[in-house]
Amino acid sequence: MDFEFRDTPKLAKFRKEVRAWLDLHIPMDFEIPDNPHDILPGSTKYEFIRTARHKLGAKGWLAPTWPKKYGGGGLSVEEAYVIESEVAQRPWSHFGIGDYYTGFFDIFGPMLYALGTEEQKKRFLPPFLRGEVIGWTGESEPDCGSDLAAVKTTAIRDGDDYVVNGSKIWLGSQYDNADYIFLVAVTDPKAPRHRNIGLFLVPIGLPGISKVHVPWMRSMHTGAWQVFFENVRMPVEYLIGGHENAANGWRVVSSATRLPQIRFGFLIRDRNQEFVLAYCQETKRDGLPLSQDSDVREALAEVEIQLEIRRLFAIRQNWQAMTGSRLAGYEAAQSGVHGKVTAIKQAEAYSDILGPAALIKEPEWALFEGNLEYQHFAPVAHASAGTTQEISKMLMSRWVCRAGD
Ligand SMILES: Cc1cc2nc3c(=O)[nH]c(=O)nc-3n(C[C@H](O)[C@H](O)[C@H](O)COP(=O)(O)OP(=O)(O)OC[C@H]3O[C@@H](n4cnc5c(N)ncnc54)[C@H](O)[C@@H]3O)c2cc1C
């Protein structure tokens, strides 16, 4: 069976249409003057990306496979792939023009879709799917990460409100602000573990919410926040799924729900690898192109092999999602661990090949506008994002040993 995405004549026509639209709205030659890795509100980069997201969202191309009635594009998976692969060619696309790491499309959007009442879906999904608002995922706490069922933040019903107390950490995206926090909180402290958790969409401006910046390796200025909730009164309408689901959140948090979102990220050629390959072909050392050096060739080939494995894992996952099949259950964890390890090894290979120029972002010395420096430290931060490698490996082991979840 051939799992590759290939353009049919109809898709090739659609690709032309997408390319023409993007040329008009997100031109190839748009240069962003400020640091590529810090997306601070008010900066040229921030405004460019948010505007691009609005435009894509209004067209239904930010969430192509989501239903039209909720603000998505109502398009096929193949059409979504065409859009994503074209957007990926645009400058800076890998820093957020698409749905890169806003937390919504991967995590809370699907939860809202699965558990939300029809009224909530009609009210809350469109602004997210059209790129008008951004949300941060509020799951982890200072004393709770892998074991999410151990959250201590509480949201206790009081009349027509829930009153929230506690703290969430590592919230953020490459955008330095958000409109909502997707909150996982204990709604009934006396109920047993796993049957005491509710999901909420919390408007970030409610009185009693404050935040402090937590510096991390991914970027120097933007990054993570710790958010504090102090007697925050939140109307019941923000409890996802209505009152009968007040303690039912764990079912959704932990389940592999059938969702309208398909991810293509790893199917698309890695931009840093493209750059380094071209650079090594064009740049001479001791009279010979770098690409003729046997050590360089070996390092580049090893990266290329791992990126191809990563792509094949992604094809398998998309095929599983598209056909609704579950081959075994360990595949997502396997793909996640492999992707994280590959990104770290890729950075090591680039610094071996290119030396200090791969480790800095100052424009006068850096290569590829500092993207290689970012490649060097971001994968270290990302190594435990979502879940740690130990936990992923444990999940795989359980599946392999047929011990269930
Ligand atoms: C870049 C980045 C972005 C993030 N973004 C968000 C976000 O937007 N929202 C959010 O809520 N959270 C976010 N997180 C937090 C992330 O979800 C947690 O870091 C992750 O779940 C791990 O939790 P922890 O850091 O508390 O580590 P812990 O769970 O405390 O784990 C510490 C160590 O113990 C190991 N360990 C834990 N339990 C077991 C076990 N049962 N068996 C074997 N080993 C175990 C782990 O593998 C790890 O090595 C982000 C993290 C990163 C790095």
Provide an overview of this structure.
The protein is an alpha+beta fold and 405 residues long. It has 3 domains: 9-100, Orthogonal Bundle (Butyryl-Coa Dehydrogenase, subunit A, domain 1); 135-254, Beta Barrel (Butyryl-CoA Dehydrogenase, subunit A, domain 2); 265-400, Butyryl-CoA Dehydrogenase, subunit A, domain 3 (Up-down Bundle), CATH 1.20.140. The protein is built from 11 helices and 9 strands. It has helices spanning 9-25, 44-59, 77-87, 104-115, 118-129, 249-254, 271-282, 294-323, 331-354, 371-382, 389-400, and strands spanning 135-138, 154-158, 161-171, 180-186, 197-203, 209-214, 224-235, 284-285, 288-289. The protein has a 4-stranded antiparallel sheet with strand order 2-3-7-6, with no helix packed on it. A hairpin with a 2-residue loop joins strand 2 (154-158) and strand 3 (161-171). Helix 4 (104-115) runs antiparallel to helix 5 (118-129), helix 9 runs antiparallel to helix 10 (371-382) and helix 9 crosses helix 11. The chain is globular, with a radius of gyration of 22 Å. 36% of the residues are buried.
